[in-house]
Amino acid sequence: MKKLVILGGGYGGLALIQELFSGYLPPDVEVVLIDRMPYQGLKTEYYALAAGTVADTAVRVKFPVYNRLHILYGEVTSVDLEKKLVNLTNNDPVEYDQLAIALGCTDRYHGVPGAEEFTFSLQSFSASRETYLNLNNLRPYGQVHIIGGGLSGIELAADLRESRPDLNIAILDRGQRVLSSFPNRLSAYIQRWFEEHHVDIHSGVSVSRVEKDAVYNLDVPIATDLAVWTAGIQPVKVVQDLDLPKDRSGRILLNEWYQVPSHPEVYVIGDCASLPFVPSAQAAGAQAEQVGHVLKAVWREDTPKVSPLKLKGTLGSLGKHAGFGLMGSTSVMGRVPRILKSGVLWKSKRHY
């Protein structure tokens, strides 16, 4: 029997499973999924969980059930590439013949003192719940600072405004405009929405350190009751610890078939893989489908064929009634992109 072990039951890991079981699977292949939780957390919606606009049951999905899929719950601590072993906390090591690493990302604090200790996170299900509890327990008119004006920071600020209209909310962003990687007109639309809903945006802020009750813009303290970090991501520690060639963001460099060149039995998917895209659930899912095709070709002893990845676009929400998106070079704003995003979420909950 050949054993394929998949690390991580997120968008990439489950898209790979869906692809593998959607067609013929050789009878001598065993598929094992390892995850620390008994369900998939919909990470793109963790901002809503943290803001308190959805319950935790709304952002988790049961794992699929297939006769030849074995699920093992455990915390991955390391991967031994030479011995082909996955090491787990409080469990025996798991051997593999082929391995797919789809463990996702964690916060990147850029060496800012106090950031990890004194800010809250959206990067895991448990961290988002903790963020919600602390936001929910803030006194009326408390001051919240969201550090980072990217997609997660914007969506959190908008949903938090709906959930807690009594709070003072501000986004601290290093750039001159929020969502700086998007067209100017989208940033301007978001800026207007925040102005109308009394969310402050402070541009050109260089966070130099964080303390319990203050965020520092260089040497200038900004008093805060709670700060949430949405200012960068990096691969999880298990991937950071692997002695493999990586790009500037710490993502593993791969060959054309998404294999580690020195260990072609190892595939890397999503936020841990060096791809020509900003990390996203959509990129992870699309790449995972291609990894599924590659694996099937390898099992048939054929030469894999992979086409360039193509993504459909990006959608974001501003509360429950407005949104924005970028489809190719076309910007969309208002009610329609919010409805589209709700449809994508509905589909992802029922995909398996």
UniProtKB/TrEMBL annotation:
Family: Belongs to the NADH dehydrogenase family.
Cofactors that this protein relies on: FAD
GO molecular function: NAD(P)H dehydrogenase (quinone) activity
SUPFAM superfamilies named among the record's database cross-references: FAD/NAD(P)-binding domain
Alphabetically ordered keywords of this record: FAD, Flavoprotein, Oxidoreductase
Origin: domain of life: Bacteria
Record's protein name: NADH dehydrogenase
Organism: Paenibacillus glucanolyticus
GO biological process: aerobic electron transport chain
Residue intervals of the FAD/NAD(P)-binding domain: 3-285
PANTHER family: 64 KDA MITOCHONDRIAL NADH DEHYDROGENASE (EUROFUNG) (PTHR42913:SF3), APOPTOSIS-INDUCING FACTOR 1 (PTHR42913)
